[in-house]
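Summary for the steering committee. One of the milestones for this cycle was to obtain a three-dimensional model of the protein with magnesium ion bound, which we needed before selecting residues for the alanine scan. The sequence and ligand used are listed below.
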Amino acid sequence: MKKTLSYLKPYAGGLALGMATKIAGSAAELVLPFILSHIIDDLIPLKNSGRIYVMGGVMLLFALIALGGNVLANRLSAKVAGGMTHDIRYDLFRKTCYLKCRQVDEVTVPSLISRLTSDTYYVNQMVARTMRMGVRAPILLFGGLVFCFLLNVKLALVLLAVVPVVAVPLYFITRKSVPMYMSVQKSGDKMVRSVQEDITGIRVIKALSKTEYENKKFEGVAGDLASAEFDAQRIMSLTNPLTSLILNLGLVGVIVTGAFLSSEPGDITGFLTYFTIVLNAMLGISKIFVIISRGAASSERIERVLALDEREPVCELPEGDEGYAVQFKDVSFSYNGKENNISGLSFALKRGQSLGLIGATGSGKSTVINLLMRFYDVTGGAVYVGGKDVRSVPASELRRRFGVVFQNDFLMADSVRANIDYGRGLSEAAAERAAQCAQAAEFIAGLSGGMDHDLAQKAGDLSGGQKQRLLVARALAGEPEFIVLDDSSSALDYATDSKMRRAIARNYAAATKVIVAQRVSSVKNCDLIIVLDDGRVSGMGTHDELMANCEEYRAIASTQMGVTA
Ligand SMILES: Nc1ncnc2c1ncn2[C@@H]1O[C@H](COP(=O)(O)OP(=O)(O)O)[C@@H](O)[C@H]1O
Ligand SMILES: [Mg+2]
């Protein structure tokens, strides 16, 4: 919570002013019944209308102070809490963007989303409500008691006797409800996960006619959330009627005692008001307790992410063999630390050479790219880029040298030009050339507005093949030293795929290329082809060599091209 509260620092002025005005407003409110009881008991019997008017005016003044103080305080609390939440969200979002892949795997994306959305909201509520109810309730509670004693000590003792009768059950109810609200937060996480999966996979769900199935699944998660909320609310809902009951019993007690002690009517009127104020204040304290507990749990979740060290350590490591642009030396890697996803992989590429990676889904092709670009660190061996171990160069410097299309990469809802440029400020000519090579120029010209055409979200208005060509254009546009294409031509027809490959080879001859493909035709002309099977190399060489020596490669080739060796 410390780190979260430190976000209040820039708003210290507003925080202090807000609390001060809240204190003033609440205090002014407290004085009102006291004055009223004074008017009833001391002024009305005198029939001194002048003084009654004066005191009425004083009451009005205090009422205005109460109103002004409370309105200003509520505004300030909204401002302070809003500003602070904005800052936390900003930092959290930044942190989330820089997290290492492994850290994202651990925290999970849905949990990051709910931390950014609902948890920051709970922190906002914690600050805003504490600045309002949190300041007001204790003042009303203790101030109310003090005024009661000032009015009439004997009646005040009746009130004092009732306080624990309310406080004890309220305490136990609140304590029981806190973990219940925590479980509401957990169920919320699950719901975000389910919604996220469903929305992302909406087409698959439709295609497989699984809408009903998903609805049922969602019903389950939403039901869990609803019942967790219901449990928490049910127990908290006891507090209001319970306090009302005790309040009414207490009021009867005051009136009976008042009558018995033949107290003055003004005292009793004042008392009835203070009684209500004090018990409501206790209710407010119990609510604020829940809100703070919930906010604390949320701030914990936020701080856990903020505390993650996203820096990728850079250390001095021996250099690889000179003269190679990319080199894997006996690399092994595991995502979960149990079974290897890559085992004993070694290969080397000279500058301008191309590597083709082929193999079944899950064989580790994308993982090779993850290791090459240091999205994950190897568990054994070493990866060298330009002769340097990837762990010995700052990650941003390393990645800047790459032009990459990831598997299932995405385009933004922005213009075609912005998608190709991606904030790099590239020249018009570079973008045009990249689009040309990626075989995208023609269809871009056909779009309304051409390069300025605004894409729909996730480029929903482009075909799969058009998306892929645009992604390739984005990768090429920066004139990168290394071009990495992970399954980026799967939606293209053979002719377009082959045109694109030839254009890349011709126009980006100096770039070292790594091409992941499902089709033999896409990697056939590569200088080196690696056939992966469950993270292991089952064949390595040129197309001709593999056709001659690698059973698996031959099998893939024959099913795809009708070629027999
Ligand atoms: N982030 C991840 N966490 C855990 N396992 C992963 C992760 N990414 C991939 N894997 C696993 O690693 C293996 C290789 O995956 P991948 O390299 O994506 O295969 P390919 O690209 O050849 O289809 C698969 O078994 C896959 O389930
Ligand atoms: Mg893959």
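Key point for the committee: The pocket of magnesium ion (ligand 2) is lined by residues 365-366, 407 (CB under 6 Å).
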